[in-house]
Design brief:
With 394 residues, the protein is α+β, with helices and mostly antiparallel strands. The chain is built from eight helices and 14 strands. The strands form two sheets. It has a twelve-stranded antiparallel beta sheet with strand order 1-2-6-7-8-5-11-14-13-12-10-9. Strands 3-4 form a two-stranded antiparallel sheet. Strand 13 and strand 14 form a beta hairpin. Helix 4 packs antiparallel against helix 8. The longest helix has 19 residues.
Length: 394
């Protein structure tokens, strides 16, 4: 017959936490007086007995503005649950990435392995920053670094977004964000420190009916590379996606209008597609079910910027490349659904290690900017095969 001491040792070895008798009585009476037909378990940690990982930490208490925001079912598709929160300071959220819930991953795969796109990492940063600061709206990004890729090698992957306010200046905030994940062995045990994937500063501006001064400052800081030309396409999407691995849910380039140059610097003008203009629009499972999903960062326009600059690198250097960073970006407005957006990118420099630097602007029907990127960095990964090389006519 087991003694009381040996039971405690067995529980401790199994990770099971007992609760004091006084606390247990209080919890029992509290639940009994509440009534209802719910089945309630009052316990500490259940350790190995929680074989289905059914127990969760109590929900965080959020301020009313945050609760109202997260209750909007069309927003924040990359926030499954909140793990940690310090009001106005810090937020940690979690998302389980899967091809079932995020079918866009199927169209961002290399050799059959889905890779979480960098632009969707920026979307995750924007969602966490805006939820942490509900009185602000997105201005853009700074110091973006795309690091260790997120691959779905063996099914779903759990990713955490860590967001922390690091700077305040009048009506502006800077929120430092990074994505992290745990190293997990075949038994599901977590070991070591979290892996850091991508990181950036999210720039926020206080909501206001008049953002004229803010927008004027953003326009002043934007790259002065002119306005994309209008005209017929010289290269259609079918031509472009012979050279990129992206499937229809990530084919955000609508074709090349013209190439151009400024001295030794080369560039290209083209068409940028919004999410609803993609060949396949259901990037999320909710959209397949007919539910709307709203994204904060205009990620597909940023993706069009990556691809337009990538085409310039292909033409100029005969190299295929991937984005590794963005020095600065600005979001001016959300375009109207019926607009046709045009994009211009211009190579502004070359750095060591096969890195090319580009400036990009996307404009609407009225030639006014929608987004701008300064210091987009692409790293050469492989030579373009001879049969795929081309020229951009100016």
């Amino acid at each position: 017959m087991a003694t009381r001491g040996s039971l405690e040792k067995i529980f401790e070895a199994a990770g099971i936490e007992t609760i004091p008798a006084e606390e247990g009585v209080r919890m029992f009476v509290d639940e009994a007086l509440r009534g209802g037909k719910r089945r309630v378990v009052c316990c500490g940690s259940m350790g190995v007995m929680d074989r289905y990982d059914s127990f969760r930490a109590p929900p965080l208490k959020l301020p009313a503005p945050m609760s109202a925001l997260i209750a909007e079912v069309t927003r924040f598709p990359f926030i499954d649950r909140l793990l940690d929160f310090e009001e106005d300071i810090r937020l940690v959220s979690e998302c389980t990435l899967s091809t079932e819930q995020h079918p866009f991953l199927l169209d961002h795969a290399i050799d059959g392995t889905p890779y979480h796109p960098g632009v969707m990492a920026l979307e995750m940063f924007a969602e966490s920053a805006l939820l942490l600061q509900p009185e602000f709206c997105l201005a853009g990004f700074e110091d973006v670094m795309f690091g260790l890729p997120i691959k779905l090698l063996k099914g779903p992957v759990v990713i955490r977004t860590v967001a922390e306010v690091v700077r305040r200046k009048r009506a502006h905030l800077w929120v430092k964000c990074h994505l992290e994940s745990d190293l997990v062995n075949s038994k599901g045990d977590v070991f070591g420190t979290p892996r850091i994937h991508h990181q950036a500063l999210v720039r926020l501006v206080m909501k206001s009916p008049d953002l004229t001064r803010h927008l004027a400052a953003e326009l002043h800081d934007s790259p002065a590379i002119g306005v994309p030309l209008k005209g017929e396409l010289i290269h259609h999407p079918g031509f472009i996606y012979l050279r990129f691995f992206h499937g229809p849910r990530f084919q955000s380039h609508g074709g090349i209008i013209a190439g151009f140059g400024e001295g030794q610097r080369k560039g290209a003008d083209g068409i940028a597609l919004m999410r609803h203009q993609l060949p396949k629009c259901n990037q999320f499972a909710a959209e397949t079910a007919g539910e709307p999903v709203l994204l904060e960062a205009l990620p597909m326009l940023i993706e069009a910027a990556f691809q337009n600059a990538g085409l310039v690198t292909m033409e100029a250097d005969g190299l295929m490349s991937l984005p590794v960073g963005i020095e600065w970006s600005a979001t001016f407005r959300v375009p109207e659904q019926g607009e046709q957006l045009r994009i211009r990118s211009l190579q502004s420099g070359v750095e060591d290690g096969g890195v090319s630097v580009h400036d990009v602007v996307v404009v609407g029907d009225d030639d006014a900017p929608v987004i701008a990127l300064k210091g987009l960095r692409l790293k050469a990964m492989a030579p373009l095969s001879e049969d795929l090389k081309f020229t951009l006519e100016g």
